[in-house]
Design goal:
The chain is an alpha/beta fold. The protein has 23 helices and 27 strands.
């Protein structure tokens, strides 16, 4: 019997069968706008189909110029625009998979001057210059026709179906919610009228493509905005869609993009929102409607996916980022090798942060993602003896990649475990998933027979017999004792705090508001080792902290947040007179800032540090001296590279390459470290 019988069970849609219950969720990768993008997309999606995914959904494609997410985004309303996608659909079909194209009309979220929306409202997350115009009646009719025509073009391009994007605050969702629909014609007013737009889009699409073409409807089940839909309204729309046979599958949509509640980031517990899908599924089953429903968000292991299906919460599982992290997710699960899956850690650093910065997406833990043509794993022409010193993210990725290619690799680590700075990061509340990457590194090092030597601090004399040495020795915090006032006992480094070397007092000042400063502040405001008391690991606590109604009775699913109080008073300070946390991730920075605000952390920019005394920390802020009565001052400013072995090895004629923090000791950057380690190993 298969280890994951529900996950691997085929899904019979009547006119076609999907080979398992895994749907690769839509995610924009920017490959569409990259030179040679169709070839790159073919390789990217083809690898996921080869890895066993049942049904793939592409990134959003607009049905017309008004629906484009930005001026250079893709649209499909002609055969000329459809034809190049044949390369993509053929690649997926050759590997036995199915692929649907998502039709996405961005509505007022458009980053272009041609955007349209139901009524004249301003998106709080769009740039000031982006203007979306209210659709007149004839414009509504034309847009509906364009959706249907786009689906016909998708069929011509070889797609097996389409997903109609009706959630996340895009155009269809904007028609449904009073938050954005202020119309007083037949497309506005009562809920029964506001949902005529999605229903008419689906009716005309079904009429245009027939009954032997997959239609998925992405239904916003939880808007997470105050003027969103109620669960009763969501159930009604789902019921009407299922009764009329307007869709073959209903996918779950969670949260508008402008909602100030995290839905997919690592702070969100695994499978946090599956009860919402279950509520809709239970309603439909109670009406005798058996349309398959898809659960989404933070489902990143086969064990979690299997449980969701076995518990009757959904009929399919959508995974987007987990399939960036590992194209072979499904095939590894099917082979009974789940430990070999490179698990998505929900960081967003190389995927969504790149997308929203108009860069090509990839994956922090898997730099091959979206670079399948550029990064190619090939056997080495000649096997070499390679020493890797340091087992952080850069060292581990370099070591197992080099070993995969046939090199003889020895990995030296002075501590008693691999992982480097990831072991420290994983101690921060909301970053527990980082342990998964360390686990994966350990499995890969063993699988590819890397000689791992723990508790072994390599000396130059130990490395003379190797053909090449990769120094991945990382960084060390700048010695606080070398600072003007760093010798005071109140002053400690971030490592002292995160490794529990000191018992931190109840009043703390954190100096440096980069990623490390925010991590330390999170650590200090969430003092617990009990997983049941961590909001990132406990759905109920997470909902309570962020104001999500667990009963889903409230409109939009939002209630007043009730975060647990911080055990400490924390000041987060920076020298720069800019927004605190400005340099954090595009799609996660607001979460970290808002999370600390809920813990009443005081964030002060433009600070000059005058000195530390028994009375506390003296700072100058806006030209005035302020004495902060604190028990400890935690320094999160400045790292130094550890390169002591570089000079003696070079002098001995050994070829040395610096990677990771040993190469660039800036703000800790695992994305760069893992990618650099991989690229260096591929070039050996």
């Amino acid at each position: 019997m298969a280890q994951y019988p529900h996950l691997l069970k085929p899904l019979d849609l009547g006119f076609t069968t999907v080979r398992n219950r895994v749907l690769m969720g839509s995610m924009h990768t920017s490959l569409e706008e990259t030179k040679g993008g169709y070839s790159k997309m073919a390789k990217f999606f083809g690898e996921r189909a080869k890895g066993g995914v049942g049904l793939i959904v592409t990134g959003g494609v607009a049905p017309d110029i008004h629906g484009k997410v930005h001026a250079f985004a893709g649209k499909m309303n002609s055969l000329k625009e459809a034809k190049p996608y044949r390369e993509v659909t053929d690649a997926v079909h050759q590997e036995g998979g199915k692929i649907a194209m998502q039709i996405l009309h961005s509505g007022r979220y458009s980053y272009s001057p041609y955007g349209v929306q139901p009524s004249s409202t301003k998106s709080p997350i769009s740039p000031w210059w982006a203007k979306a115009w209210p659709l007149p009646n004839f414009g509504v009719e034309k847009t509906i026709s364009n959706f249907a025509h786009c689906a016909v073009m998708a069929r011509e391009a070889g797609f097996d179906g389409v997903e109609v994007m009706g959630s996340e605050g895009y155009l269809i969702n904007e028609f449904i919610a009073t938050h954005t629909n202020k119309r007083n014609d037949k497309w506005g007013g009562e809920y029964s009228q506001r949902i005529q737009f999605p229903l008419e889009v689906l009716r005309r699409t079904r009429e245009a493509v027939g009954k032997d073409f997959i239609i998925i409807y992405r239904l916003s089940m939880l808007d997470l905005i105050k003027k969103g839909s109620t669960m009763e309204e969501v159930n009604l729309l789902a019921e009407l869609i299922a009764k009329e046979g307007l869709a073959d599958i209903i996918n779950s949509g969670i949260g508008w993009h402008e909602a100030r509640i995290p839905t997919i980031q690592t702070k969100v517990p695994r499978a946090a929102f599956t009860p919402v899908t279950k509520m809709v599924r239970d309603h439909l089953r109670g009406k005798g409607l058996n349309i398959p429903l898809v659960a989404v968000n933070r489902i990143n292991t086969p064990e979690v996916a299997e449980k969701v299906l076995a518990d009757g919460e959904a009929d399919m599982i959508s995974m987007a980022r987990p399939l960036l992290a590992d194209a072979e997710f499904v095939s590894k699960a099917a082979a009974g090798k789940p430990e070999e899956i490179n698990v998505c850690i929900g960081c967003n650093q190389a995927c969504l942060d790149h997308t929203f910065s108009m860069k090509r997406a990839s994956c922090l833990v898997n730099p091959y993602a979206c670079y399948e043509e550029e990064l190619v794993l090939k056997p080495a022409e000649k096997a070499k003896k390679i020493a890797v010193v340091g087992s952080g993210p850069a060292g581990c990725s370099a070591a197992y990649t080099a070993a995969q290619r046939g090199h003889h690799v020895t990995l030296f680590e002075k501590s008693d475990k691999i992982g480097g700075q990831f072991n420290i990061a994983a101690r921060v509340p909301g970053k527990e998933e980082f342990y998964e990457t360390i686990r994966y590194f350990d499995v890969m090092l063993k699988k590819h027979k890397v000689d791992v030597r723990l508790n072994c601090e390599a000396a130059a004399a130990d490395l003379g017999g190797f053909d090449e040495v990769l120094l991945a020795t990382g960084v060390t915090p700048r010695e606080v004792a070398t600072m003007k006032w760093g010798s005071h006992p109140k002053v400690v480094s971030y490592l002292d705090v995160l490794l529990n070397r000191v018992k931190v007092g109840k009043k703390v000042a954190v100096i440096g508001a980069g990623g490390i400063g925010f991590d330390v502040s999170e650590f200090l405001t969430h003092e617990t080792e009990d997983p049941e008391k961590k909001a990132s690991l406990n759905r109920s606590l997470f909902f309570q902290e962020w104001g999500i109604d667990e009963t889903m009775a409230a409109r939009g699913g939002v209630v007043e947040p009730k975060p647990a109080p911080s055990p400490r008073t924390v000041y987060l300070l920076q020298r720069k007179d800019t927004k605190v946390g400005k340099g954090l991730g595009t799609t996660t920075g607001w979460i970290h800032r808002l999370g600390l605000k809920k813990k009443e952390v005081q964030m002060w920019p433009g600070c000059t540090y005058k000195g530390v005394s028994d009375a506390g920390l003296l700072v100058t802020k806006k030209g005035k001296d302020v004495l902060l009565d604190v028990d400890h001052v935690v320094v999160c400013a400045g790292q130094e590279p550890l390169r002591a072995l570089q000079a003696p090895l070079a002098a001995a004629g050994v070829k040395v390459t610096l990677i990771g923090g040993a190469d660039v000791a800036a703000e800790l950057d695992a994305k760069r470290a893992i990618r650099q380690g991989t690229e260096v190993a591929l070039a050996l």
